[in-house]
Design brief:
The complex is a heterotrimer. By secondary structure, chain B is α+β, with helices and mostly antiparallel strands. Helix content of chain B is 30%, strand content 24%. An 8-stranded mixed sheet of chain B has the order 3-2-8-9-10-11-1-12. Chain C folds into 2 domains: 2-113, Translation factors (Elongation Factor Tu (Ef-tu), domain 3); 126-281, 3-Layer(aba) Sandwich (Rossmann fold). Chain C has helices at 2-5, 46-51, 93-99, 136-148, 174-178, 224-236, 278-281, and strands at 22-33, 36-43, 59-64, 68-73, 84-89, 106-113, 126-132, 156-162, 182-188, 198-199, 216-221, 244-247, 263-264, 267-268, 275-277. The chains are: A alpha+beta, B alpha+beta, C alpha/beta. The interface between B and C is large, with 52 and 46 residues.
Chain lengths: 159, 372, 290
């Protein structure tokens, strides 16, 4: 893996491109690097919320375990994707899925509580962060709808 | 050609009974004559051998969902508006064998339909119907692929056209630029006066059918009378249709509430597509004998109002009548123009007359235009 | 830009009556995924076999006497037209009957028909193939084309979605494609623990791509819902809809524009389609029951 400083990584990420310098600094302050070798369980369903992650490179699988059916992967994520977003939007203050690195993965971690507080202090920053988060959640909703449609079962395809 | 025959573009006059000689000439030339006749309380097209079989003295009163024969009280040969028949039934039969297949060892042998296609002489083709034939030519001959069955029938067909002097209550050919004056290709085109026919020569072949007919060049008086009758017809159209930017109007109003309204009335019975002189949709079916060793592949008329028309494995794309009526009308008046460079409607009014619930496309378009 | 919209046309000129089938024997049957098999067809008439050619994305009408006819995309390499493959999913009467055929049995073939993937106009550009389920079959001839002419294209990505791992079509070929500097990303809607790849619907794979909107062409084929969302993801990345090509399916009966069944607004999908740019169909794509 390339050894970029956290500062450079953040600056290169489109997530932070629209931020002014003070807001950028506020984000940098609560960011840290996280790396996981392939196979690492990043967090487990039911654990208390802590971090939200932005994947720089690698692959992460989100799993939900179903009694008597085992572990079901509901979504895999990759470069540029966000996971653990419920740490910033705590409806239930626990993880609603497990996250597992399926390849060597590197991500930027933000403390969820600290991010909430930063957004609370500076609503300008809050607007940017929540706008991004809304996109993440909307994309997940679209993906989930399509999975629900079970589109390959409709028969209306190729030939 | 030593005979003294008129040339294409020239107009002649014949006495009305002399039309029988034209029939005879066509018969001698090997044509099967198809003309209007009275059948089953309607004026339809069928095989004839004599002018006596024409519905002389008859007309029909038409309206939305309404058609009644009436005596005219005169001796007009062609004094009636279009009936339910169309010439498409002869050029593009409602049922046609395409080929047959028989099992041959492990494989199959195909025998194309090599029936000699009939030579028809169509008697009494109106301007709207000439326009309809020209539209079907675009579909079956002038595209990248040619239908050899249509092409053979079309090339052989003799057309004796009639300038329409009796538009019906449901007619709007003038709005569609399709009539009432015959301007498209014909062999002969006649205009009926009280005691004579003015005949315009459309082709040398048409002229030859006058070989045994006593004719004279039309004078200013006859030409004037004929022209007046056509002009009168143009002013007597029972309906009008505002054709300005119909594609734009329909494409922009695919979700217009009027579609729900018409869907409440439409029975999806397919009558409109069957009587339409331009509707060309078809299906293909296999008919096998009991052993399964011999199969005939036939083409039959289909209709976009049939639910199965839009079937794709997995379901029907247009399960509701609303979508089917919208498909029909949008195709007829809008996408047809994109596809073939011409409207699919000639304003003959048959779809209005023969709709069992009297749906009137001119009214539907006006409603969409008003509320758009 | 106007030229980007036009898809190529290739019209067979061999048969006078376009409705007459040409007989072909099944040379080989290869099972692919559950309910899907690939049939190699060999024309009986040597002259026809020699003259036969097709463009990537075109389809044939396959006919079984007494059963009927069905439109099936050609799934083989256009540069070896004598090795003619059709990948067929059992769906209706005709495909059910085809499933019961054996090697040596005959099938009637008319074609090739329809428009092609515009591989020529996409030359010099990055290319993203997005396939869903059996939709990879009509795309495969275009994939073979770009592999043969690899140097003429920029970055090539294949996003292949399937319902489950066992439904992943042509997965045996993915490594061979990757050897030609092509990124192949399979994803499934539903996975078990043995699946090592991506999980999620295929349009979502766009989130990890960084396509250059000035220089990217998208070819997509799959369920209509999937293609709609692929187009949305492409549009969200500012790829012009004139450079997003879809392959649509309707009830094709005659394949030559006579029967009217496959109309999609102004187009006959058998003639102007099945491959159209999203720009061409955009006005109608969200009209219910259109």
């Amino acid at each position: 893996m390339v050894d970029n400083t956290l500062d450079e990584l953040l600056r290169a990420n489109p997530w932070f491109a629209a931020l002014g310098e003070p807001q950028f600094e506020a984000m940098l302050e609560i960011a840290s690097m996280a790396t996981w070798p392939a196979g690492t369980l990043i967090f487990r369903e039911g654990e208390p919320n802590q971090n939200i992650y932005l994947i720089c490179e690698g692959h992460v699988a989100l799993d939900i375990s179903i009694p008597m059916r085992g572990r079901a992967t509901i979504l895999t994520l990759s470069d540029g994707d966000v996971f653990g977003w419920s740490a910033v939007l705590p409806i239930v203050n626990i993880k609603t899925a497990s996250a597992r690195a399926t390849h060597d993965t590197r991500a930027i971690a933000f403390d969820g509580i600290a991010m909430q507080e930063a957004c609370e202090r500076d609503h300008e920053l809050g607007y940017h962060v929540f706008r991004r988060l809304t996109n993440v959640v909307a994309a997940r909703l679209t993906a989930t709808r399509m999975q629900l449609l079970d589109m390959y079962a409709t028969g209306l395809e190729g030939d | 050609m030593a005979e003294n025959l008129p040339s294409p573009g020239e107009q002649v006059v014949i006495a009305k009974p002399a039309l029988q000689s034209v029939f005879k000439a066509l018969d001698s030339a090997g044509y099967t004559l198809i003309a209007p006749v009275l059948r089953n309380e309607a004026i339809i097209y069928d095989e004839v051998s004599s002018v006596d079989e024409l519905p002389i003295g008859w007309t029909a009163e038409t309206g939305p969902g309404h058609y009644r024969l009436e005596q005219r009280g005169d001796e007009s040969f062609f004094g009636f508006p279009a009936g339910p028949s169309t010439w498409k039934g002869y050029l593009y039969p409602s049922r046609l064998k395409l080929f047959s297949v028989s099992k041959n060892g492990g494989g199959y042998q195909t025998v194309p339909n090599q029936d000699v296609s009939p030579s028809y002489a169509f008697i009494g083709v109106r301007a709207c119907e000439l326009a309809a034939i020209a539209i079907q030519d675009r579909v079956f001959i002038e595209g990248p692929f040619q239908d050899p069955h249509y092409e053979a029938r079309r090339e052989k067909a003799f057309i004796l056209a009639v300038n329409c002097t009796e538009p019906g209550e449901t007619c709007f050919c003038a709005s569609m630029g399709a009539g009432p004056r015959c301007t498209q290709a014909f062999d002969l085109a006649l205009t009926e006066l009280r005691d004579a026919f003015v005949i315009e020569i459309g082709s040398p072949l048409g002229a030859r059918m006058l070989l045994d007919v006593e004719w004279s060049f039309a004078g200013a008086l006859e030409l004037g009378r004929a022209d007046q009758k056509i002009t009168d017809a143009e002013n007597q159209m029972g309906r009008t249709l505002d054709t300005s930017d119909l594609p734009g109007l329909l494409y922009d109003n695919l979700e217009h509430p009027r579609w729900d309204d018409v869907a409440e009335r439409c029975l999806s019975c397919t009558n409109c597509t069957l009587v339409c002189p331009t509707c060309f949709c078809s299906d293909m079916k296999d008919i096998s004998d009991l052993t399964g060793a011999n199969t005939e592949r036939v083409r039959v008329w289909d209709s976009c109002f049939n639910p199965d028309f839009s079937y794709v494995h997995g379901g029907h794309l247009r399960p509701n009548i609303r979508a089917r009526y919208r498909q029909w009308l949008t195709h007829k008046l809008a996408s047809w123009i994109d596809q073939f460079g011409t409207s699919g409607c000639v304003g003959c009014g048959r779809c209005i007359t023969w709709c069992p619930v009297g749906i009137d496309l001119t009214e539907e378009i006006a409603a969409i235009r008003d509320e758009a | 830009m106007a030229t980007k919209q036009s898809t190529l046309q290739h019209i067979p000129t061999i048969s006078l009556d376009p409705m007459l089938p040409h007989w072909a024997a099944i040379a080989k049957i290869q099972d692919e995924t559950p309910g899907v098999a690939t049939y190699a067809l060999e024309f009986q008439d040597l002259a026809f076999r020699t003259a036969y050619s097709f463009l990537p994305g075109q389809f044939n009408m396959l006919y079984l006497p007494g059963i009927g006819e069905v439109a099936i995309s050609i799934s083989s390499d256009p540069e070896t037209p004598h090795e003619l493959l059709h990948t067929i999913r059992v769906a209706g009467n005709v495909t059910q009957a085809i499933e019961r055929l054996k090697v040596g049995d005959q099938i009637g073939v008319r074609g090739p028909y329809g428009s092609a993937w515009p591989v020529e106009v996409a030359r010099g550009e990055d290319l993203i193939f997005v396939a869903g389920g059996i939709g990879l079959a009509p795309l495969r001839p275009a994939i073979y084309h770009v592999i043969r002419h690899r140097a003429e294209y920029g970055k090539i990505t294949i996003l292949a979605g399937a319902r489950s791992p066992e439904d992943m079509l042509y997965h045996d070929e993915f490594d061979a494609w990757r050897e030609h500097d092509i990124e192949v990303i399979p994803t499934v809607d539903r996975a078990d623990e043995s699946w090592q790849g991506r999980v999620g619907v295929v349009p979502m794979l766009f989130y990890s791509l960084r396509p250059d909107p000035r220089n990217t062409t998208v070819f997509t084929c799959g369920p209509e819902i999937m293609m709609r969302f692929v187009a949305y993801e492409a549009m969200a990345r500012r790829i012009p809809t004139e450079r997003v090509f879809v392959s649509l399916e309707r009830n094709m009966k005659c394949a030559v524009g006579f029967c009217g069944h496959c109309q999609y607004g102004p187009t006959f999908l058998c003639k102007e389609g099945p491959v159209l740019s999203f720009a061409q169909i955009e006005p109608f794509y969200n009209v219910e029951e259109f």
